[in-house]
Design goal:
Elements lengths: L12 H12 L6 H12 L5 H16 L8 H15 L17 H7 L4 H14 L4 E6 L2 E6 L6 E4 L5 E3 L1 H12 L10 E2 L1 H17 L5 H13 L6 H12 L3 H16 L3 H16 L3
Antiparallel strand pairs: 1-2, 1-5, 2-3, 3-4
InterPro entries: SirB1_N (IPR032698)
Protein name: Transglutaminase-like domain-containing protein
Family: Belongs to the UPF0162 family.
Length: 284
């Protein structure tokens, strides 16, 4: 897919970003709410009724789970049977080419998505039902975990919720990085880390499609609203503004970023200032 069928939210954009920032900075950020606010930023057709409907659908799916089926493996099996088998949530290689695969409201309708968005569905449905569930950010492939470390059970929502053996997890990591699986890779992922990774995926999708610099820009803007983010995102935003022909704004952002960098890397700061001067020269 080379373009998005979604109109931008335009007038609602500032309010959506305000709510996104407020939720991200709350004491207990709501993963589904953040994903849906992100989805509304991407798709101007997602209004308040649509956001509410997506939350209701997660509640409805949770209501289909059996009441406290047992230990971690029983929970993983119950989620697989409900979401993977009964409702058909899973992913395919083609889903990596679609922006909808990173938008929760569309994943709930299509029952297709990237591993991390399918994992969000698993997490939110399981959490509502009282399961001991959390995300596990394996390199290159997001999965879900159930239970404490000594009883941990991993499931792969992209593969319909297949329960993973230790060897399966090792192969996933080796395939993505060539490195062995380490215990640190199996720790629970914070909701804000999940959202940051979703936004990284969207930025990667848009970077491969230069005509979608609009998507790159809002994904960077939302990333900058997270309480913790890499400083280089400001440089990326400045470059996007220049790419989009907003030379004055881009140059100003480059100059501001150079001031930040100057304290730790003066030569890098000077290179950024040169980029700012080049951007301003494009106005002549």
């Amino acid at each position: 897919m080379t373009s998005s069928p979604f109109p931008p939210p335009c007038e609602r954009s500032a309010e959506l970003r305000r709510r996104f920032a407020e939720e991200a900075r709350s004491e207990r950020p709501d993963l589904a709410a953040l994903c849906l606010l992100l989805g509304a930023q991407a798709d101007g057709t997602l209004d308040e009724a649509g956001i509410d409907a997506a939350q209701v659908e997660l509640d409805r799916l949770a209501g289909r789970l059996p009441y406290r089926p047992g230990g971690p493996r029983a929970w993983a099996g119950a989620l697989r049977e409900l979401l993977g088998e009964r409702y058909g949530f899973h992913g395919t290689a083609a889903d990596y080419r679609r922006l909808e695969s990173s938008l929760l409201q569309h994943v709930l309708v299509r029952r297709r998505g990237l591993p991390i968005l399918l994992s969000v569905v698993w997490l939110e449905v399981a959490r509502r039902a009282g399961a001991p569930v959390y995300g596990v950010a394996l390199p290159g492939h997001f999965v879900v975990g159930f239970g404490p470390p000594e009883e941990q059970v991993l499931a792969d929502p992209f593969d319909g919720g297949r329960v993973l053996t230790g060897t399966d997890a090792e192969l996933l990591v080796a395939g993505a990085t060539g490195a062995p699986l380490s215990p640190s890779m199996l720790t629970p992922a914070d909701p804000l880390d999940v959202v940051a990774r979703i936004l990284n995926n969207i930025r990667a999708w848009a970077a491969a499609r230069p005509e979608r610099s609009d998507v790159s820009l809002w994904a960077v803007d939302l990333s900058l609203l997270l309480p913790s983010h890499p400083a280089r995102l400001r440089h990326e935003r400045a470059q996007l503004l220049v790419q989009r022909g907003e030379f004055t704004a881009g140059a100003a952002e480059l100059e501001a970023y150079a001031e930040v960098v100057a304290a730790v890397d003066p030569p890098a700061a000077e290179r950024v200032r040169q980029q700012a001067r080049a951007a301003r020269a494009l106005l002549n």
